[in-house]
Amino acid sequence: MAFPDIAAALSRSMPRLRGALAGNVPLASRTWFKTGGAAQALFEPQDAEDLAYFLARLDPAIPVLPLGLGSNLLVRDGGIEGVIIVFGSSFNSIVVEGESVSAGAGAADVKLASAAAAAALSGFVFLRGIPGAIGGALRMNAGAYGGEIKDIFVSCTGIDRGGVMRRYTAAEMDFTYRHCGVKDVIFTQAHFAGKPGDREEIRAEMAEIARARGATQPVNTRTGGSTFRNPPGRKAWELIDEAGCRGLVLGDAQVSELHCNFLVNRGNASAADIEDLGDEVRRRVFDRSGIMLEWEIERIGAR
Predict the structure, then answer these.
(1) For the chain (length 303 residues), average pLDDT per consecutive 10?
(2) Which residues of 134-169 are buried (b: 16+ CB within 10 A; e: fewer)?
């Protein structure tokens, strides 16, 4: 669907805006599922100050959502009302100073892991297995292979809906399993701390994570990563497998046969196909085990 064009009016009301602002921008190519609708408006700020200027002058009634690498996201077919924020190159920097590492919200998790390895800093290798960006990792306390963001986190900065820059400590982030307690803030940069380690051992561990991930996950397909959170004491993939859902198909969406906590777009799946398949998996798992799986993939927009 096409939304009313708000981009032109927003541009006129913000004469000092330096970033790119456009209306009715398709988002399918920006997500790993490669499906879904458009954004009513999409803004790529030049830097944090440009983003703060934009948010300070944006009507609070207009929804705003940051979009990272689109790896843990399903954009519904009806598209997203409001403004999508995407990060340009100024948000991708990674700086290592001693045992401290700072990274922009747009930096890829794997690049942060590689930068830490090059500096012989341990604690970051788990990020090799997370196909997203730092902003999203903060938002969901991303974790894999025995590590989580909270394990290396020191502080971060973000901009609230009023355009005010804010700083958060680890305690203020209220990290829990796949959750961060900070709301209505767009993270722009984070600071982490590692520990001295052996460079070659760190690189070998990263290589093993890459090997294991390639052998057990559908990494070269149109997927959104891990679909459901692990319930207490159980693995989501085991529950899905026990419910007979491995390989289950709906439209052109499929439960991965390689790792059944991944949903796959076989080529022409709509977002509705993928979401409906996920809900069917949840229903079958509940009928089999009495456990209702919770979505880990964020589903946004109108059906």
Answers:
(1) 90 96 97 96 98 97 94 95 96 97 97 97 95 93 93 98 97 94 96 97 95 88 92 96 98 96 97 98 98 96 92
(2) bbbbbbbbbbbbebbbbbbbebbbbbbeeeeeeebe
Q: How far is CA 195 from the centre of its chain?
A: 26
DSSP letter (8 states) at residue 266:
-
Instruction: Write phi, then psi, for 82 (nearest 5 degrees).
Output: 105, -150
Residues in contact with 272: Cβ distance below 8 Å, sequence separation at least 6, in sequence order? 76, 77, 251, 303
Q: What is the pTM of this model?
A: 0.91
Domain 93-202 belongs to what architecture?
2-Layer Sandwich (3.30)
**47: Cβ contacts below 8 Å, ≥ 6 apart:** 90, 91
Residue positions annotated with a catalytic role: 178, 226, 296
CATH architecture of 218-300: Alpha-Beta Complex (3.90)
Q: Which residue, 52, 45, 167, 28, is CA-closest to 106?
A: 45
CATH class of 7-89: alpha beta
Residue 129 is classified by DSSP as G
Domain borders along the chain are 7-89, 93-202, 218-300
